[in-house]
Amino acid sequence: VQLQASGGGLVQAGGSLRLSCAVSGGTFRIGTVGWFRQAPGKEREPVASIPWSGGIGSYVDSMKDRFTISRDNAKRLVYLQMHSLKPEDTALYYCAASPRRRVGVMPSSDDDYRGQGTQVTVSS
């Protein structure tokens, strides 16, 4: 399974971005796909996750009002729509997949398959 995140960039505070995660390879192995982020000097943290087939997204509480995760199985894409971005959202965002179908947010330890990240920078 391979994953590749894209869509990051520089945005002003209050702006929006949509990240995309392209999934390829043995998708039959995937139970859940999640978005994670890591800011400089900080630990990696989960953002949101969604079952690969069926089910709805789960979010970290601090982000659920601003971020939306969705998937397009036909295109093998998982999206993270981010609104009302804040400078503290600045981080390297990456997507990861787990063979386990999770209830709730996928923990960072579940990133069996992880792709390259995409940088999101929010200016104040």
CA distance, first residue to last residue: 37 Å
Radius of gyration: 13 Å
Share of helix, binned:
under 10%
Major beta sheet, specifics? 7 strands, mixed
**Low-confidence runs of at least 5 consecutive residues:** none
Question: Could you give the order of the helices and strands?
Answer: EEEEEEEEEEE
Oligomer: single chain
Strand content: over 45%
**Number of helical elements:** 0
Overall geometry comes to globular
Produce the secondary structure layout.
Layout: E1 2-6, E2 9-12, E3 17-24, E4 32-38, E5 45-51, E6 58-59, E7 67-72, E8 77-82, E9 91-98, E10 113-114, E11 118-123
What's this model, at a glance?
By secondary structure, the chain is mainly β. The protein is built from no helices and 11 strands.
Q: Can you walk through the features of this model?
A:
By secondary structure, the protein is mainly β. Helices cover 0% and strands 49% of the residues. The chain has strands at residues 2-6, 9-12, 17-24, 32-38, 45-51, 58-59, 67-72, 77-82, 91-98, 113-114, 118-123. Strands 2, 4, 5, 6, 9, 10 and 11 form a seven-stranded mixed beta sheet that branches. A four-stranded antiparallel beta sheet has the order 1-3-8-7, with no helix packed on it. The chain is globular. The mean pLDDT is 95.
